[in-house]
Amino acid sequence: MATFSSSPIVIDGKGHLLGRLASIIAKQILSGQKITVVRCEEINISGSFFRNKLRYHNFLHKRHIVNPKKSGPFHHRAPSKILYRAVRGMIPHKTARGAAALERLKLFEGIPSPYDRKKRMVVPEALRVLGLKPGRKYCTVKRLSHEVGWGYKDVIDRLEEKRKIKAGAFYDRKLAAAKLRQKAHEDHSSSYEQLTTLGY
């Protein structure tokens, strides 16, 4: 991601490794790039599910002794918040520069309305299939979040199923239109040649 884009970059989180994706996002938002990540629940974490669950429960034990509700640390369960915290740890978030960088980041579970019609990108440096040795264990943030108290797994699954049906229908229509355009072009190719000879 060497180039800078004036419009926000939309990243599809599916199949990316959590830490690698977070580090790339952190660097980009610090340099001024606006980034939106969709499908945060499909991000992968290396290591077995059981190991990662034990790590998260270990994190749950860390609490402020005086007033945990007010002082934190806050143990967010949502996949988008887990990614947010990973990115925040790689940024000087207590400075004005770091706070401004985090304002440029948007994270979503699933693919909500405006982003389902936009071009989504992947980050090759952060993909699990390229970064993790075949046969190594990994888990998804969705399952981890669900097991530690995130209550919207079924809702997101249902919404994603509906979105995929709509996206499939749109793609079929797009393919049919492209075939008709190609056919029309082939049918009238002879008339194009006649027009070019006449100087059009």
Unreliable residue stretches: none
Largest beta sheet: what is the strand line-up? 1-2-4
Number of strands: 5
Residues in helix, %: 40-55%
Distance between the termini: 43 Å
Counting helices, strands and paired strands, the structural category is: mainly alpha
Beta-strand content: 5-15%
Count of separate DSSP helical elements? 9
Largest sheet: 3 strands, parallel
Shape: elongated
What Rg is obtained from the alpha carbons, in whole angstroms? 23 Å
The pLDDT mean sits at 92
- Secondary-structure element order, N to C: EHEEHHHHEHEHHH
Describe this structure in words.
The chain is mostly helical and 200 residues long. Helices cover 51% and strands 8% of the residues. The protein has helices at residues 18-30, 49-60, 68-71, 79-88, 96-103, 128-131, 141-147, 153-187, 189-197; strands at residues 9-12, 35-38, 44-46, 105-107, 138-140.
Topology:
Blueprint: E1 9-12, H1 18-30, E2 35-38, E3 44-46, H2 49-60, H3 68-71, H4 79-88, H5 96-103, E4 105-107, H6 128-131, E5 138-140, H7 141-147, H8 153-187, H9 189-197
Parallel strand pairs: 1-2, 2-4
Antiparallel strand pairs: 3-5
Helix pairs in contact: 1-4
